[in-house]
Specification:
alpha+beta; 4-stranded antiparallel beta sheet; 2 helices; 8 strands; flat
C-alpha cells in the first residue's frame, strides 16, 4: 500500500486549486455564486441604482470596456462607500471616496475585461457601506461575442 506524503498532498491540492482558478476564469462559476449573495433591491438599500441588474449590451471577446453606474443616496443619512468588490478578477471597480449626503448623486465606474469570456456574463458588485446598512450590491450583464483568429464573429 502506497502512502501519500505531505509533499505529494500539497502538490495535488495546488494542482486542484490551479484547475479551479482556470475554470473559474473561463466560466466564472464563482462569480455566479457571489452574485446569488447580492441583495436584490430591497427598500432598505440606501443607494438607488436604475436597476438591480443593468444590461450593458454586447461586446467582442478580448476587449476592455468602461461603464458607469449612476446612483442616488435615497437614505435619510450620509453614506460613505468603504469598499467595492467584484465577483471576478475581470472587473475593476472605482467608487467615490467622499461622503455622499442624502439626495446626492454619485457614480460607480467599472472596467471590464472580456478576455476569455463568451456568451452572456453576469457579474456582481458588492459595496461595503458606512451607516446602518453595511452592504449593498448590484450586478450587470453583458453579452460577449467570440473573436476568432481571422477577426470575425
Amino acid at each position: 500500500m502506497k502512502r501519500i506524503t505531505i509533499r505529494s498532498a500539497i502538490t495535488i491540492i495546488s494542482l486542484l486549486l490551479i484547475v479551479i482558478s482556470l475554470l473559474n476564469f473561463k466560466y466564472n462559476f464563482l462569480g455566479h455564486l457571489f452574485q446569488q449573495s447580492v441583495s436584490k433591491g430591497k427598500i432598505s438599500d440606501p443607494l438607488h441604482f436604475v436597476s438591480d441588474t443593468i444590461d450593458l449590451g454586447s461586446i467582442r471577446e478580448g476587449t476592455q470596456s468602461n461603464f458607469q453606474f449612476p446612483f442616488e443616496n435615497s437614505s435619510s443619512d450620509s453614506i460613505k462607500i468603504i469598499d467595492a468588490q467584484a465577483g471576478c478578477d475581470c472587473t475593476e471597480v472605482y467608487f467615490p471616496k467622499n461622503l455622499i449626503k442624502k439626495g446626492e448623486h454619485g457614480t460607480i465606474r467599472i472596467k471590464y475585461n472580456s478576455y476569455g469570456k463568451n456568451g452572456e456574463v453576469v457579474e456582481a458588485i458588492r459595496l461595503t457601506l458606512s451607516g446602518s446598512v453595511k452592504s449593498q450590491g448590484f450586478s450587470f450583464k453583458i453579452n460577449v461575442f467570440p473573436f476568432d483568429n481571422n477577426g470575425k464573429e
